[in-house]
Each structure stands twice: as structure tokens, then as C-alpha cells.
């Protein structure tokens, strides 16, 4: 870890079409703003190049995928080098014909890729047909070394799994990052919508608490129609940054594009782990069943 | 599960001395009130028989311990039978000379013990010298079968471990219960106190979210002096009940004895697990390192 405080930026965007070049330009404009304001690390939201295309199962959508070192790589790597920042992007990765991943790519002040994370837990529910598009990641829960520290990058559905955050923390992750794309069904009641958004924030803040590390979350905002005329998704924004006790340091609106800038004090983790040393007391002698599907 | 809704009661008490018979009478009075109001299940706070005695390390304190089927058992078993309730109590268990546990005891409408849970994760920090008093539990994370369902009873420090809640849920626990005793150091700033209490609530609400089960928490309230003249602990109360999305259903005050009564709809778990089926997608092929101390 190079410094005790790192200024982190989060970009929450609304996406209105599948012109990825236009969407990249819009991301680049926000990255420029954040870099000018001193951010050393910037997180983009999940699948920021396009609309959230998993609302239907459509083989033509595979045209949106790119190889790891494709056009998106050239574009965002150049930005990381230009602004001398750690940049966390998200992409629809074409690994081979018929083999695709939902992949986060990390750059570290260079056009080179510092590391990637392939989404390990893949959701599938009405409007979020990700199992059709993405093979579950095969790189495990491995932090990515950068000039600002070891970054535990996870993606969206991973956020519901304490196991994922724990394994990242145990491998030395100093900050957890979650690019996500989650929203409401407009048919749900306001109460149900509130419960869902709160659950989403609570579970991610809890990873900060359980592991005494900061958590940085970028979610998309805006309404995206479903291509098949179904309801569509109202992405709930609410990108946020939590400190190592789960405390909210910043939070974006539900319905507007917005950037967050937060100074994260990495020394807090050391202090918190001294007063509440959870890792000292884990009952690893009795955790074996965590690798079972169910205890039946 | 016998009915889709179960009325649960929580007793949050302030303890002013080590006269256990007096403290039991006070608990019994609240149990009577809750039973009269229709509660089918009642949770008492951690180590409710006495002051929180772990503020110092004192060999005389072992006199407070009892065998499993001792005086406390006779007293509380009789109440469970009298009121025809599931009753969850907490005790300083003397298992053998020199061998003690922090144990939750569950009664099911009978004077007999339905099951016990011995606290698995034992804390130790200034003012909470539990490792001096309690041997870590050796019964694992095993739910207790009762007439209202399978209960996942965990105790205080366990609350910080997602592993414990997960293992209970995977073994079929339908509700999680946490008797606890946690409070503030008065020397901490109000901001730090707020972060601690929030962290404590977030992590427990997150167990509801991660496992789609309700969570019931009883914490003590009131200030207890340290026997050695140190600062003492201001127990922060805030007993609460959360539903299977982590939503708060009821919450007690920080500083007053108080009972909670909540109708828990157990069918919600089924509904929530259908829309957000986390257990379907756990990456058990890559969770093996959870049984390590650290990934180094």
C-alpha cells in the first residue's frame, strides 16, 4: 500500500443505446472530470459499454462481445495511462466462439491490463438472463495487485455471497469493488422496491463489516426498455462507498447520472481489525460444510 | 413448520446485580406478558441471569456457572411448559470442573431441553474477556428442532461471522436467533459509537439477506460498572427483528428495558428464495479456502 489515503471515484451512468463508442465517450468525459479532481482509482458500472442486454435471450447480442484485448481495451487502457489512474472497467468478454464471460478489467496507470476478474456467480431470473450469456468465471476469487493496493473486484450477483468477499479479503484484498447493474420491476410496490434496494446495500455494507475493508459500488441508473416489449428495468443507481465498519461515506441518487469522490483512509482497516479481530476467531475446524451444496 | 405466521417475543433487559433469582423473576414477568399477548416463541438476551461478568478475569466468577440441568433449567423449563411456548434462554454452563461454555438453551412447550447451542466464536477484547471464561463450543452449527420450526440459535460474537449463519441456513434453520451482550465504551465519540452499533445491526440484517431467513436479536441495555473500577459498558439495547430481506420489522430503544412482539411470516422465505435464489448459484467448487486461516 503506497499511501494511507486514496481518492476513489465512481461513475454512475444512464445508458440510452448500444452505440458503444458514444457510451465510451460519455464514460471518458466522467473519468476526465474525476481524474482532474485527483481520483487515483475510478470504478465504472457493470457492462457500461451498452444497454443491459440480458433482458432477453437473443443470439444476435453476442455481436456485442469483444476479446479481452479488443477495442474497449485500447480505449480504456489509453485513459488509464493518460490520467495515471487505476481504472476498473467491465466488459462482455468473448473468450472463444461460444464462450463468453462477464469480466472486470483493471488497468494500473498503463495501457496494459493489470488483472481481470471473471464474474463467478451468474444470476438468472426474469429480465436478467445472464446464464444464457455468461460462463461462470474460472479464475476464482483472486485480488488484483495495483499501485494503490490489492483490489478485490467482484461483479453484481457476487455481491450476495459473503463467501466471495471473505475469500477476497483472506487473499489480502484491501478494498472491495462491485460494478453492478440492478434495478426495479415497476410492477413491484414501493415497499418491495425499498426492501430490495436496502437488501442490496445491506449485504454489500456487511462485506465491509465482516472483513473490515472499504467497499466501492457502481450501479447504473435510468430506465431501459426490454427489447421484447416486457416491462423493462428501472436501474436504481445508489452507487455508494462504505468504510471498513460498513459506514456510508457517500451515496448517489437513484435516478440521475452522478459521480462520487471519496477519500478512503486505508489505515482505518488496521485500526478496526485491532478492536474487532474477526479473523482471529474463525472456526475453520467447523466450516467444512461450506463447500457443500446443502447440509442434508 | 406448523403455521405460516409465528408471533415472536424479545425481552431486552437492564441487569443491576448478580442476584440471579431476582433477575429470573424479572425475566419471568416479561415472559408472562409476552405469552399473554400470544407469543409462541420468546428470546432472552445473552447471559441474562447476571451482570455481564466478563469485564474482568476473576476466578470467583465461575461460582455463577451452573450445570445444564441445574436451577436455571428448572426455572425456565417450567415457564416454557406453563405458557406452552418455545423459550430461548442463555446460560453460563459448567460442563465439568474447569470447563465452561456460553450456552443457549431451547425449550419447546415443555420442561425438557429441546436442544442447546454452545457459542462457537469466543471474543476477547478489553472489557469482554470471554476467552478466559468460555471454551469454544463443540456442537457445531446445528439448528434445533421445535414445534415452530428449525431454529438457528447463535450467540453474540457469532453474529460477525457470515459462515455461522450460512451453515445454520444450509442445515435448514428457518429463523436465526442471536442473544447478545454488546455495548459502548463511553470514551468513544458519538460517531464511533454510531458506527459500531450500525455495523452490529448491518451484519445481522445481512444474514437475513444472504440466507433469506428472518433474524431475531436480543441485546441487553443499561450501564454496568466494571468491578475493577474501569470504565464499564453501556449496553446499547437496540434489540430487533428483521425479515428475510433484512428489512427491520421492529427495533427497541438503546437505553430502556423493552419487549418486542413481531408476527413473522415464514412463507416470505419461500417467496424470497424464488426471486433471489442464492443457494442455487454458490460456487462450492471454489469455496475450499474458506476452511483456511488465511490465503497466504
Summary of the model, kept short:
Two copies of one chain form a homodimer. The first copy, chain A, is built from six helices and 15 strands.
Report on the structure:
Two copies of one chain form a homodimer. Chain A has 296 residues and is an alpha/beta fold. The first copy, chain A, has a single domain, classed as Carbon-nitrogen hydrolase (Nitrilase/N-carbamoyl-D-aminoacid amidohydrolase). Helices cover 25% and strands 28% of the residues of chain A. Chain A is built from six helices and 15 strands. In chain A, the strands form three sheets. The first copy, chain A, has a six-stranded mixed β-sheet with strand order 5-4-3-2-1-15. The first copy, chain A, has a six-stranded mixed β-sheet with strand order 6-7-8-10-13-14, with helices on one face. In chain A, strands 9-12-11 form a three-stranded antiparallel β-sheet, with helices on one face. In chain A, a hairpin with a 2-residue loop joins strand 3 and strand 4. In chain A, helix 4 packs parallel to helix 5. The longest helix of chain A has 22 residues. The termini of chain A are far apart. Chains A and B meet through helix 4 and helix 5 of A and helix 4 and helix 5 of B.
Task: Please outline the helices and strands.
The structure is a homodimer of 296-residue chains.
Chain A: E1 5-12, H1 20-36, E2 41-43, H2 71-83, E3 86-96, E4 99-108, E5 113-118, H3 130-133, E6 144-146, E7 149-153, H4 162-170, E8 175-180, E9 183-184, H5 190-211, E10 215-219, E11 221-224, E12 233-236, E13 240-242, E14 248-251, E15 258-265, H6 267-275
Parallel strand pairs in A: 1-2, 2-3, 7-8, 8-10
Antiparallel strand pairs in A: 1-15, 3-4, 4-5, 6-7, 9-12, 10-13, 11-12, 13-14
Helix pairs in contact in A: 1-2, 4-5
